């Protein structure tokens, strides 16, 4: 077995050091079991905290940050520094890893304005995935390292753009040819009335968006799941990074935790 798997974790999921260490151990475990992980991380809460520390307003619309040029600089600085810290955690856990940005893997394009309460909002320096290039991921994997990627991208003119880490995860999953994608977050899965939904189809996801059960930060997540599934992944999972060893329990033991999403 040599299954490429895209693992993405958000800033909230692993803010606790013990959660982060356990996740790194799980990544080693699944690598030894024959998975080939590719990792994308976020850092939304850390970016917001740093913006507020500098007296800037941290605003999100439909789970996406309104990013002016100053916010873009803060996002890049914070994500780069988090990336170095995360690389060290994985090295201590015994994984061979290489930190990098998503530039060179994803070419982004400026995201068109989004609708919020019936009004069009321009998000500024925010991008969507326009195209992907597998070469740099392949070469990191061939050298025996696990890529650990932060979600700053650039467009075809080299202009940097802030892309939501879930969106980057789906683009990197496509570039890597991943057969599965796991989004690790801080809730037990997709919830309805506080109850975990064990599995969903894309049609179910549409209904939950329509009925406003899925909102905020969960919106870019489910859209990333849709993109990954339509670009070749068989299954995507949403797991809680705060449940110890949820990754290994789900992937190795086949335990029923989190939410799995399939095309139908
Ligand atoms: N139906 C839902 N089920 C679970 N979480 C939801 C749902 N709708 C909105 N959310 C929100 O989405 C959040 C996860 O998104 P986000 O905070 O951006 O996570 P991350 O930092 O891991 O990317 C949850 O903490 C929750 O507040
Ligand atoms: C455009 C946009 O929303 N970019 C995100 C990038 C980081 C991210 O997505 O982090 P999480 O996975 O922790 O949410 C941001 O600025 O917060």
From TrEMBL:
Entry's Gene Ontology cellular component terms: cytoplasm
Primary location: cytoplasm
Site (Transition state stabilizer): 8, 221
SUPFAM superfamilies: Carbamate kinase-like
Reactions catalysed according to its record: N-acetyl-L-glutamate + ATP = N-acetyl-L-glutamyl 5-phosphate + ADP
Aspartate/glutamate/uridylate kinase domain location: 4-239
Kinase found in the keyword field: yes
Listed EC numbers: 2.7.2.8
Single GO MF descriptor: ATP binding
Pathway: Amino-acid biosynthesis; L-arginine biosynthesis; N(2)-acetyl-L-ornithine from L-glutamate: step 2/4
Localization, UniProt: Cytoplasm
One Pfam family linked to the record: AA_kinase
Classification via InterPro entries: AceGlu_kinase-like_sf, AcgluKinase_fam, ArgB, Asp/Glu/Uridylate_kinase
One biological process term in Gene Ontology: L-arginine biosynthetic process via ornithine
Source superkingdom: Archaea
UniProt keywords, alphabetically: Amino-acid biosynthesis, Arginine biosynthesis, ATP-binding, Cytoplasm, Kinase, Nucleotide-binding, Transferase
Protein residues bound to substrate: 43-44, 65, 162
Function noted in UniProt: Catalyzes the ATP-dependent phosphorylation of N-acetyl-L-glutamate.
NCBIfam families xrefs: argB (TIGR00761)
Family affiliation: Belongs to the acetylglutamate kinase family. ArgB subfamily.
Protein name stated in the entry: Acetylglutamate kinase
Organism: Methanomassiliicoccus intestinalis (strain Issoire-Mx1)
Species classification: Archaea, Methanobacteriati, Thermoplasmatota, Thermoplasmata, Methanomassiliicoccales
GN (gene name): argB
